[in-house]
Amino acid sequence: MNKFISFCKKLGSKILNLIFPLNTKCIFCNNEIVDFEKQPYCDECAKYAFNKGCKCKICDTRVKEDNVICDNCQSHKRNFKRCYCPLNYEKAVRTSILSFKDSNAKYLAKSYAKIMAEYLKDKNLNFDLITFVPSHIKTIKRRGYNPAQLLAEELSILLGKSCIESLIKIGKTKQQKNLTYAERAKNLEQSMMITNAKQIKNKTLLLVDDVVTTCATIDQCSKLLNQYAKAVYATAIARNHLKNNTQDN
Ligand SMILES: [Zn+2]
Ligand SMILES: [Zn+2]
Prior knowledge:
The chain has 10 helices and 7 strands. It is of the alpha/beta class. α10 links the parallel β6 and β7.
């Protein structure tokens, strides 16, 4: 009887799938997968996608030994307490995130947030509110959304914490390429301002971004937020590990 019920359930979900097709492809490489609800990525991607192994105790980048602080975090005192990134910004993960950011693949936010929430639950983090890295209004108009905000809103549902806007981008950030870390920081600092000082006062925040590379953006956001907040933790879907760990530019 049990077998018959489970057969009917499976048949029912197959028929439902035919009528309302669910996403059945790997969120990274687009290959067909067996059970999207259980695991939205394929086994091949699972081999390299996750940020495992030895990581910096502050910024989650790859380091050679366990339980150390990377060169960049040693040379620049961070304004956030800790940054958590579950994925490596590499191969198909990178392509997938690029399409999330620039090709209107908004639907990916749900799966990404699920992966982030699982990673964060493991860390037993204590925080009061979720907030996100702002996008310039012109960029939001072009994209139709702010990827970091989408992730923050999904995380808010999954982690049961409120999500608020706390920063806005008031100026376009100048080309960062040829600037030193200090010049980048100044550049970013002048391009953002706090919008919600009252609500974040004395609160511990979880600041959400999409990808973390040099930490310059989350660090500047944290610096501003720290004027009112008690502390800031940061999180992003993926960590872009710098090849040369001494080159934080
Ligand atoms: Zn895959
Ligand atoms: Zn670090």
